[in-house]
Every structure is written in structure tokens, then in C-alpha cells.
């Protein structure tokens, strides 16, 4: 039990930081990248027992992109810094590997199953990214909500 919790917290965090290093992300963003990947993985991990793997990947991608958008506004940097590194724990790498393996070993039914499953996961991740990226940047800024709240309060006093 403890080992399972350890692996599901430390591995996505460290793996995301490793990809951040690989993509030459500035070191001041390493912890933020690690937390982004960790939160996306935890969203996937906790929803996967209740829904399909593709839907769980969709929710994980939503969390990754949402946190990436928030960090982008807060830290004033490009979204790709957090998004590219943070999405890696959700990528269906083993599914693609096994698809190729089953194709090479002439197990076409297994290859089709794994390939379709990997494709569904990839599309779910893309849809999760599109949903959050389509929200205007200003919605992730605290100043926007403070101004909106103050304007709303002005109308109530009239």
C-alpha cells in the first residue's frame, strides 16, 4: 500500500522533471513542471477505476492543461514549458510499443486492439488540451476576477 502510493506520487513527479530537463526548461520551473505532471497523473489514477482509460486520460489532460494555464499566467512564461513536460505521464507509450510488437509478431487482432486503445487515449488527451486552451487567457488571471468583482459591486450600489 505504502509502496503503491510512493510510486504513484514520486514517479510521475520525477519523470516529469526529467522530461523538463530533457527539453531544456529553465531550472526555476522544474518543481512547477513536476507538480503539473503529478496532478495530471493523480487525476488519471483516481478516475481510472470508475471510467475507461481514455476518459481517465481526458480528465488527466484537463488537469494538466488547467494547471499549465494557471502557471503560465502566474509565472509569465509560455504554456509549453508546463504542458509538454506535464503531459508525458499520460502518453500511451506502452500501448504504441505493444501495437508495433503485435504487428511484428503477426498477432493482428491484438495489434488492432492495442492500436485502437492507444488512438482513443491520444484523442482524449488532445480533446482535453483543446477544451482548456480554448478558454481565454484572462480567465486565469486573478486581476481579471478582482476587476470583474469590483465592477459588479459598483452596479449594486446604484
Describe this structure in words.
This protein is 78% helix and 0% strand. The protein has seven helices and no strands. Helix 1 packs across helix 4, helix 2 (30-47) packs antiparallel against helix 3 and helix 5 runs antiparallel to helix 6 (108-133).
Summarize the structure.
This protein is mostly helical and about 160 residues long. The chain is built from seven helices and no strands.
List its traits.
158 residues, mainly alpha, transmembrane helix, membrane, ThrE_2, cell inner membrane
Largest sheet: none
Average pLDDT over all residues: 89
Beta-strand percentage?
under 5%
The gyration radius over C-alpha positions equals: 19 Å
List the helices and strands and how they pair.
Blueprint (H helix, E strand, L loop, with lengths): L1 H21 L7 H18 L5 H23 L4 H7 L6 H12 L3 H26 L8 H16 L1
Helix pairs in contact: 1-2, 1-4, 2-3, 2-4, 3-4, 3-6, 5-6
Membrane topology: Multi-pass membrane protein
Keywords: Cell inner membrane, Cell membrane, Membrane, Transmembrane, Transmembrane helix
Family: Belongs to the ThrE exporter (TC 2.A.79) family.
